[in-house]
Amino acid sequence: MKQRTILFLIADTGAGHRSAANAIHNAIKLISQQEQEAWQAQQVNQHTDSETTGATSKATNSLPEPTNYRVEIVDVFEEYSRFPLREAVKLYGPTIRYNPKLFGDVFHLSNQEGTVKAVQTLATPLILNGLMRLITSVQPDIIVSIHPLLNHVTVHALQELGLKIPFLTVVTDLVTVHYTWFAEGADAYIVPTEEAKRLYLQRGLDPKRLHMLGMPIDPKFTLPTEEKEALRKRFNLQDDLPTVLLVGGGDGAGGLQAAVKAISQARLPVQLMVVTGRNRRLYAHLQRTRSNFHVPAKIFGFVHNMPELMRAADIIVTKAGPGTICEALSCDLPIILSGYVPGQEEGNVEFVLHNDLGVLALDPRTLVNELRKLIKPGSEILQRRLANARNISRARASFDIAQCILSYLPVPETGSIWQSRQWQRQQQRLSGRLRSSIRIRRQGVRVRRPVISKTLLRNPVMRRFARTRDISENSTTQDTSSTERAVKRFRGLRR
């Protein structure tokens, strides 16, 4: 059985990029499983036929032996970039949490060609070598980027390596698609909506490379679940009360606490399911104060059964994350948006409002009023939005995207480019710096030089405590552990 390696490039800035990669990965696993089952069934049938007829005839329409897919999902900034880029990317979470307006200003200012090129000039030297080490160690047959800041540098890395590996971009923003998403030089661009498609075409890029396939969500949302009544019994919910699901994304943001408080104080005839994600402090606070609520409530932390929770609910209140919006649509849920990230998620709000899928409620009064409209018996607004959700939902997008990715893999009869003469010749053409970088990674050695200034290394006290003649300005064979111990002792003396 042949193996093909698929490398997904992500960054854990929020939970959406990894969730999208995992959704496509899960779809690929299911596709692979179906291919193997079909091939095995064919083998059994052929064996049965040969025993019956006494002849071993090969069917003309027989299925080829299925391919085994090896998938690697890598946070490139965390594992392969250098300071200060690695640390700068980590500011995403705190910024959108504590100063979202600043993030929105940066998003809009950077969403243009000139700014993108300037940032690339500064950032590329801090990640290019690491990315090439990653590519040459994983040796993928195809590369898929699910983060806008990784697209241009990946094209650059493949050019430096001189390899023709298919490179695809999967866009995970519904409407507000940043300039960096569409890096010229990719083999295919997969977008979720007509609005994203329009932005792509405005850039003047090749229409033949564009695929509008939807937003990747977990394949679990396509699988059947229990009926709503059975799900409510499982979660100990009341049958006679409308159920409101409140979600704040993976980090439990989006004004969850304020929304719960507003619904409780309004004493609406509803029951709540609140998913706090990784926000343990909010989870503990809501559990501690739940006895004071004026409405029944179930509190959850980070969950892995979101399809069941959504199908047990009647309405969802959430921040404007693209993944959660598309998951809600697949479960026929009307949406109330309680918040959004300026710049990045503004288009998601527009998507929900323009398609009459829900409303934006940034203050408690609006939230309570909108809930009253939806829970009213025989609500026409509720029925209209349910119908709109069914019409626009693309629950199987992950399978469509997975099939598109697999279609760009080399045909089974073709050998891997990493065992080809082309790669052997190309290695000789690489500069000494690049060959050294790649060789270090291949041998599994991650060199971490101690952060010691040259002045410190010249100090006689430092030399005495290091007890070695090799610690000098030009030393290349330092004992890292003894050096670090000497540094600590030296600093202790200076204090």
Automatic annotation (TrEMBL):
Keyword entries, A-Z: Glycosyltransferase, Transferase
Keyword field contains Lipid biosynthesis: no
UniProt superkingdom: Bacteria
Cellular compartment(s): Membrane
Domain (Glycosyl transferase family 28 C-terminal) ranges: 243-378
Region (Disordered): 39-64, 468-495
Biased composition (Polar residues): 44-64, 473-484
Principal cellular location given in the protein's record: membrane
Keyword Glycosyltransferase: yes
The Diacylglycerol glucosyltransferase N-terminal domain, residue ranges: 67-217
Any one GO BP annotation for this protein: glycolipid biosynthetic process
GO cellular component: membrane
Molecular-function annotations in GO: hexosyltransferase activity
PANTHER family to which the protein is assigned, alphabetical: MONOGALACTOSYLDIACYLGLYCEROL SYNTHASE, MONOGALACTOSYLDIACYLGLYCEROL SYNTHASE 1, CHLOROPLASTIC
Family stated for the protein in its record: Belongs to the glycosyltransferase 28 family.
Name of protein: Monogalactosyldiacylglycerol synthase
Organism, as annotated: Ktedonobacter racemifer DSM 44963
